[in-house]
Amino acid sequence: MSGGVRELKKGEILFREGAPSDAMYVIKSGRIAITKAKGTKEIVLAELVAGEMLGEMAFFDNKPRSAGAKAMLDSVVIALPFVALHAQFKTFPEWLKAMVKTVNSHLRNANQRIKNLEQASSAEEEMFPPHTITRLCAILSLVGFKCGEDTDEGLLLPSGLLRNYTIQIFQQPTYKMQKLMEVLSGLGHMIYEEIGEGKQKIVIKNHKQLTQFVDWYNDWIFKDASKKIEVEEKELPVLRALVHYGSKIEPDEKGEVNLNLTNMQNDSMKDLGYVVSVNDADNLAEKGLVNEKVSGEGGVIFMSFKFVDVQKILPFWEIIYTLKKIQAKN
After folding, report:
1. Is 320 among the domain residues?
2. Of 33, 31, 30, whose CA–CA distance to 46 is shortest?
3. Is residue 183 part of a domain?
4. Which of 165, 187, 222 is the last residue of a domain?
């Protein structure tokens, strides 16, 4: 990059986060914002004015830009190419070069620690991180085993005892347990109702399934990343369709059903309210959750899968993604 004066219009990008570094800049006039991507948004870390320098950290380690920079006002900057600066830097005393490099390294490390703290804060904002989900569901399961009462609706739990287990024994927030039960109730796995005088009706409709979810999710959390099979939220509609239509087919001796995907595509809007194409389950096949689709007579497309396995994981992933969307209280 050649040196010299560069004029920027308001909003114009000077350099982007992650871009290669080839120069530092001195602001001659105007105002430059240092920006950082955070999800789909952009946050401003600092605003620099005339006389200040930016982009200098990469001079010593040649790393990509750790942040972006753009003009907040019409601005003028002076570009100082690293090629020319390196030639001058070689003439510095060794002790001075070592000191400057050390200061730069400390700044890099400090930025990384700040980034780590930001990530930790983001995790804390999540109301239901994975381990919280397993703990709270395990409490429900345990109380069900210990003193649940069988009813026509399911397993009735004593609300007072559940509260004591949640607060006193497992030291979990009651508002999170309450929100979890509201979510499970909304998904059809529980009944959670206020019945007056500070009491609640708490019924687990399928205690065995809830217990299986705790064991399955705990195993999934600690499984080696290379062995994890994760269903994405966008794949839930096709998973629901496979369960819906697969439930109408008699499994073979291996427990597999052979689903006509062509009929599914034609009937899904009428039956489910959304269209599921013959290709929508391809990602699930790549992950090994279902078999690859095959063509039959007349161009009809089929896909086989072990029904009980697909049926089992669908409600589990629905619980996970519903809880992930709930943020902690400020």
Report:
1. no
2. 33
3. yes
4. 222
> How many CB atoms neighbour CB 258 within 10 A?
16
Fill in the amino acid letter for 233: E
Same domain, 28 and 44: yes
Are 270 and 260 spatial neighbours (Cβ–Cβ below 8 Å)? no
Q: Are residues 213 and 234 in the same domain?
A: no
Span 186-214, mean pLDDT?
Answer: 93
Q: Other CB atoms closer than 10 Å to residue 22's CB: what's the count?
A: 15
For residue 87, what are its two tokens?
Answer: 């030639």
pLDDT tens digits, 263-291: 999 999 999 999 999 999 999 999 999 99
Answer for the pair 126, 313: CB distance below 8 angstroms, yes or no: no
Query: For residues 294 and 259, is the Cβ–Cβ distance under 8 A?
Result: no
What is d(CA 261, CA 276) in angstroms, rounded to the nearest whole number? Answer: 9
Are 237 and 158 members of one domain?
no
Number of domains in the chain: 3
Orientation angle between helical segments 174-186 and 307-324, nearest 10 degrees: 130
Task: Give CA–CA dist 105/109, Å, rounded.
Answer: 6
- Same-domain status, 90 and 55: yes
Task: Choose one of 174, 205, 222: the last residue of a domain.
Answer: 222
Q: What is the DSSP string of 288-320?
A: TSSPPPEE-GGG-EEEEEEHHHHHHHHHHHHHH
Give residue 8's Cα distance to chain centre: 36
Residue numbers of the domain that contains 214: 131-222
Residues 131, 221 contacting (CB under 8 angstroms) = yes
- Cβ pair 36, 17 in contact under 8 A: yes
Kindly state whether residue 152 falls inside one of the protein's structural domains.
yes
The answer to whether residue 321 sits within a structural domain is no
Residues 18 and 118 occupy one common structural domain: yes
Encode pLDDT of 26-74 as tens digits.
Answer: 999 999 998 888 766 778 888 889 988 888 777 766 778 888 899 999 9
* 3-class state of residue 120 by DSSP: helix
Tokens linked to 314: 């669908």
